[in-house]
């Protein structure tokens, strides 16, 4: 199936992106998609028209259209867990039934969302908890998908906050709970225990610590649970009326659209939260209906496949020029690497190629002053994905926004064009250098250029646009997963470490390492124990 694309490798790797622009005067528009108010420009990559045709053929051969339909229809495409994959139903504001085993799931989703909205409103208007003291702060305790989604979104939508201030505790490191709870008043703080399974070690430990901080069982009326496991929430002491449930066909890293998004709803209110859902749904409709060549998630995925499989780049940087998207790279790390960081195909056969790149990043312009050195001159090519809003939320600081946009565009331009040795020499000569000094320095000031990047421009980071972006990346992961033939919706790779941590917990306390532990681990344990009295 990969024969055509594999056959393009040598040509693609020796190609100059600048030549593609020289050969095609329309490239800037022909290799960009403007849809749903967004513009995705992938012209600054080495993909040519034949490459795009081959990628689309590959997507078709992988059965993308059928698999997409199966996902939206609630079929059990998460085969290793025997589950449907229906996070899209959480943002489906329509009336057409979505069936799982013959049952329409939308009424219950609507009912839970209405309960969330009633609860959020009561917190926001001060009528909850009803003791005359208003909730000023919310602490979400969760990890992974029960943390990163709401955390990322709460930070992203700061201009829309008009509710209590949201805080997040995730790490089992007691420093996280300590530093987060410091200065908060338990009487005016609502604690959300967010865990799909309600068994996660970190979350349950942090929840117990927070309960003790709040004053014990008497404080449970300011605790809320979000989980698929209602019985476990009751065991913890949180009554059903303050448990917001969801179903196992919502994966943790895809769960921000439902009850896991409660902290976001508390921060921005139910109406703005619905705007976020509307954005997600708009992207779902686009993903389901647009031709592959004009389809944002499909082409975002195909550019990723091109960079990794044809050009051989095993990493990609996500670089939002938007300070409020500071946790987007971390969010995408989980979304992409937990979904597609797999070694076997759906049927268990080993993959014949590496699926899923290493994803990382930081907002611009900060990253420019830190790791862009490697991106521009290091020997490892890092495909860069720039994001930028056409407008910001600070009209009084227009100068800042113009500088932000200029920097974003400058980086992709620099990656594309580079600077030749002749240009470097001319610049240095103009500064008065000559002879050995000029020869020496010129080599260090050369930029190879020809480094791929994409740029995604959105109008302004509203709740709707954030919804579009998150759904865009979710579907991108799905498309890449389909092409690799893997299950993007399980995460067995996180199990082993958890199991071993269980065994080592006792060892850390007692100093008695399990017999089966490696000599290295035993020695580390002994060293750590030597500090404990
Ligand atoms: O929501 P929870 O059940 O507490 O799970 C929290 C997280 O932990 C797991 O280890 C998985 O790797 C994540 O996919 C999940 O989001």
Automatic annotation (TrEMBL):
Keywords: Cytoplasm, Gluconeogenesis, Glycolysis, Isomerase. It is an enzyme of class 5 (isomerase). It is found in: Cytoplasm. It holds the Pfam family PGI. GO terms for molecular function: carbohydrate derivative binding; glucose-6-phosphate isomerase activity; monosaccharide binding. Pathway: Carbohydrate degradation; glycolysis; D-glyceraldehyde 3-phosphate and glycerone phosphate from D-glucose: step 2/4; Carbohydrate biosynthesis; gluconeogenesis. It catalyses: alpha-D-glucose 6-phosphate = beta-D-fructose 6-phosphate. Its EC number is 5.3.1.9. One of its GO terms (cellular component) is cytosol. InterPro entries: G6P_Isomerase (IPR001672), G6P_Isomerase_C (IPR023096), Phosphoglucose_isomerase_CS (IPR018189), SIS_dom_sf (IPR046348), SIS_PGI_1 (IPR035476), SIS_PGI_2 (IPR035482). The active site is at residues 338, 369, 498. CDD domains: SIS_PGI_1, SIS_PGI_2. One of its GO terms (biological process) is glucose 6-phosphate metabolic process. It comes from the Bacteria. Catalyzes the reversible isomerization of glucose-6-phosphate to fructose-6-phosphate. Belongs to the GPI family. This is Glucose-6-phosphate isomerase.
